[in-house]
Amino acid sequence: MLLDKLLSNLAVHVEPFALCTLSAGWRLRLPAPPDAMIHFVLQGHGAVRGPDNDPHPLAPLWLAVVPHGAAHALESGTNVQSERRIDTPPEGPPVHRIIAGSSGAPELIVACGMVSALYGESLGLFDHLDEVLAVDLSGTPQVAAAFQGILAEQSAPVPGSSTMTAALMTQCLVHLFRCLAGDGDRSLPWLTALQDPRLARAIDKILDDPAADHTVSSLAETALMSRSTFAEHFAAAFERSPMSLVHYVGMQRATRLLREGTLTIDQVARRVGFSSRSHFSRAFKKHTGTSPITYRDSASAGERNLFAWDSRQPT
């Protein structure tokens, strides 16, 4: 199955989680994360509010995904009167603890962390998410066990903890995608695309070599569709044009290569289809908001942090 192919080729990275505890009547405001934010409810009932300000109910063993670039808030109870806002990175052990309210018995406990899930090293599976997803996974006890394992690994890291954490999170995502694949009302664009093997062939072509001389016509030929039909179906699934995705995948691959730090800027530019370093630098800055050199230096300095979020809204 196409979904099996995608899930077997996932690259998952998990940032350190935080345990957020809220007393009844409290709101915890969180800034916009650069990656998708996962909230898994360990105890209690509440809600998560996204940029649309609509409350998305939360209950034990529910999992919510907040899109990257989306400021949001967790709430406990129906009568919210107090608020705590997180603006700076907290200090503490690998698993941070954030309390909104009193130090007594909490009303809501949520495990919160950023997760990157890439297919083909470049296509983020939550990149085109434009609203908060809140999914009931209480019928899947494996997810609760996996999250307990993630928190245990991050609380007392040992050799192999990062690999184990990624494997446990992959299990959670598989259960989430299974649930979404059977839900006609809520889905992700790539899940819609995977239902059409013709689009899947074109996506694989882009991911295999984003630096190739792709055109809408060549991708339509790969999909065995007419140019107009292919463009229409692609836009409906991804809410962007085929060439926009080609550019996006190239830029995402460039960010990965720059983080690895083994290639020069010129070499990275050529790997993603740019013959001109200056052209690549302009395109990269438009995509990320920073120059390739600055991005590479920041990545090597290890500046990624769970709550060191960029409040700049993506374009």
Describe the structure.
- The chain is of the alpha+beta class and 315 residues long.
- It has 2 domains: 2-183, Jelly Rolls; 196-300, Orthogonal Bundle (Arc Repressor Mutant, subunit A).
- The chain has 11 helices and 13 strands.
- The protein has helices at 2-7, 141-155, 161-181, 189-194, 197-208, 216-223, 227-238, 242-260, 265-271, 277-288, 292-300, and strands spanning 10-14, 18-22, 26-30, 37-44, 46-49, 55-58, 62-66, 72-76, 82-85, 96-100, 108-119, 123-124, 133-136.
- Strands 1, 2, 4, 7, 10, 11, 12 and 13 form an 8-stranded mixed beta sheet that branches.
- It is globular, with a radius of gyration of 20 Å.
- The two termini are 34 Å apart.
- Mean pLDDT is 85; it is low at 303-315.
Keywords:
315 residues; alpha+beta; Jelly Rolls; Arc Repressor Mutant, subunit A; 2 domains; 8-stranded mixed sheet; 5-stranded mixed sheet; 11 helices; 13 strands; 40% helix; 22% strand
